[in-house]
Amino acid sequence: MAGTLHDVVIEDSGVTGLEADRGLVTRKSTAERVAGVLRKRIAEGFFLPGGRLSEQDIGNALGVSRNTLREAFRLLTHERLLAHELNRGVFVRIPSVEDVVDIYRVRKIIECAAVRGVTAKPATFARIKEKVDLGDEAARTGNWKDLGTANVWFHQELAALSGSERVNELVGRLTAELRLVFHIMAEPRRFHERYLPRNHEILDRIEAGDGAGAEQLLMKYLEDAEEQLVGAYAERAEAARAASAAE
Amino acid sequence: MAGTLHDVVIEDSGVTGLEADRGLVTRKSTAERVAGVLRKRIAEGFFLPGGRLSEQDIGNALGVSRNTLREAFRLLTHERLLAHELNRGVFVRIPSVEDVVDIYRVRKIIECAAVRGVTAKPATFARIKEKVDLGDEAARTGNWKDLGTANVWFHQELAALSGSERVNELVGRLTAELRLVFHIMAEPRRFHERYLPRNHEILDRIEAGDGAGAEQLLMKYLEDAEEQLVGAYAERAEAARAASAAE
DNA sequence: CGGTAGGGATTGTTGAACAATTCCACAAGA
DNA sequence: TCTTGTGGAATTGTTCAACAATCCCTACCG
Known about the structure:
homodimer; mainly alpha; three-stranded antiparallel sheet; 12 helices; 72% helix; disordered N terminus; DNA-binding
C-alpha cells in the first residue's frame, strides 16, 4: 500500500515520539468533553453520591442537547461513577461496603504485583518520590484536599510500575470510585494523614530495590485502609439504624 | 421514616436474598440490547477487525435510530472492541502487538494472583473442571470453535478464584479483546489445541491445593501463549512488508 | 507529477415530538 | 390507620428530520 510506504518515510525522518502529543491535536467529541466536566464535578463532590443528574437541567446548564448528554452519561456509567436506572435517570453512584471490599481486593492484587517487580536496577523512581513530597507539603500547609489527591497519585504511580496501559486505566477508575467512598463518609483529613509516614517507608524499600519488602508494607497498608473504611461503613449503618428506630 | 419501617417489616418476613433476582426483572434499554447483538457478532467474527460499522446501514438493519445506535457504539468503544475516530466512524478494533503484550501482562498479574490464593481447603473446583472437560470434548469431536471458547472459559474460571466482581469483568473484557486477536490471525485450532494438556496440569495442582505450583505452570503457560501470538504478529508484519514492497 | 478545488457521503449535534414509565398526592376502601 | 387504587405531572426512552462539520475521492490544473 502507498499509505504504508508513506508511514515508513515519516518514521525514518526523526519524529519518533511525536505521537505522544496525539492527545493534544485529537479533538474530542462534545459528549467526551461533557463527560470530562461531569467527571471532575463528581470527583470534587459538586454532585454528591445518590444525587440525581437531570437530563433537562444539566443539558440546559451545559448548553448541549439531551442526546449528547446521554452519550456522556453512558461513558460515566461504564466507569461506575454513575448508576443508570431505566426510566428513572442517572444517579451518582453510592458504593456499597461490598464495593469497598472488592476495590481493595483488586488494589491488593494490582499494586502489590507492581511493586513486587521492582529490582535493584538503576531505575528512576522520581515520579513516586514527587507524589510523596506532594503529600508532605499538603499536610504541612494543612491543605487536606490536596493531601487526598497526592495520596491517590502516589498509588497510581505505584501501579504504573507494572508498565501496563490497562493497569493504569484500571487503577485510575478504582481511585475515582474511591473518591465517591470518601465523599459519603466525609472526614478524609484524618484518614489520609495517618498514612503519610507509611508512604515514605514504601518508597524507601522501592528505592532500595527491595520489591518484596515494599509489597509486604503495601499489603498491610491496604489492609488497614480497607478495615478503616469498612469500619466507617458499619458505623454509618449503625447510626442510620438508630436514627430510623428513634423515629 | 415510614418507608424504613416498611422495609424492616419486609426484611423480617422471609424474603431476604430476593434481591439476587433483581437482574431478572431489570429490563434493558434498547441501546444495551443493540450493544449485546453487536458484541456477539464481533466475537463470532461477523464483523472483522478493521471493518467500519456504518450508522446508517446497521441502524436500518436493526431498526433503531442513529442516536440509539450511537449509544451502543459508545458502550463497545469503552470495552475496546470498537475504535471511534471522530468524523470517520467506528471500526472494529485491530489490536496491535503492543496490545497483545499488555493484555498478557495483565492476565499474568490477575490470573496468577487468583490461583496463588488457593489452599488445601475443601473448596469445590467443579466449575473449573467442567471447563477443562468441555475443551477435551471439543477437541475430540474436532469442534475447534468450541475449543477456543472452552479455553477462554477455563481462564475466566481461574480468574474467578479471586472472588472479585471487578476482576471477573476485567478478564471478560480482556478475553473479548483476545478474540479480536484470534480473528486477525486465523488458525485458532492449532493454537488452542496444544494447551489442552496444560489445562489438566494446572487443574491438578489446584485440586491438590498447591496454589504456588499452579501459579508457576500458569505463568509459563501465559508466557508461551504470548510468545506464540507475538511471533505470529511478526510474521504477519513481515508478510505485509513484502507485499507492499512488491507493489 | 504534485497540489488542490470541488462534490458526495458520513458523522456530529441539535431540537422537537411522542410513547413509556415513574413519581407524587389524594381519595376510596378495609 | 393502613393499605390500595387512581389520577395527572414530570422525566426518561426513542425516533425523526435537519443542518453543520468533516472526510474521502476524483478531476482538474500548474
